[in-house]
Amino acid sequence: MIQLLQQLDPKIYAPIVYIVAKSDVTSIPRLQRYILSCATQDGDNNQQWEGRYPKSQVHTLPRAREVHQSYISSIFTTLHSTYRTVQLLWKIQPQLIVTNGPGTCVPIVYCAFILRCLFSFLHLIRFGKDSSSSTKILFRTIFIESLCRVKTLSLSGKLVYPIVDSFVVHWPSLMEMYDKVEICDALVPSLDS
What we know:
The chain is α/β, with parallel strands linked by helices. The chain contains six helices and six strands, in the order H-E-H-E-H-E-H-E-H-E-H-E. A four-stranded parallel β-sheet has the order 3-4-5-6. The chain has a two-stranded parallel sheet with strand order 1-2. The longest helix is centred in the middle third of the chain and has 23 residues, at about 105-125. The two termini are about 25 Å apart.
């Protein structure tokens, strides 16, 4: 994900809000290093990463389901994660959400979809159909499928596929199976070249 984020222009996509699973012990240090390297490149000497770098914020959310967690107990953790996700998304109201992987992405995508519908409905009630009032569209979502998914989508991918604005895969074989997917060859070079 960080390799893809490096392609974003920070002048256009700012501020960036990162959401990481609270139990993700490998991504948080990588993200810290990435944000500090961005701060160093920009000449910012601020070394406190969590929400202090002016172009980024980092938040943690509980996972909806941990690896090997029972399905019964995951109902409660998913409800808790969903509640915390709604609180966070309501607070930050992002224009664009780029997400991948299991654990936190499914509640984020579904909560973003529900909030987007709610905001659209409230806008329609307030301004009517023929509203000339231009408002930013919030909560657009892009899901990036795991690089290791060559033949089928992940469970998270299958769950969010119907409601995301854009669904990105890395392998051409998945493009043939699903109508709505787009290919990203930033990590997987084309076999034609």
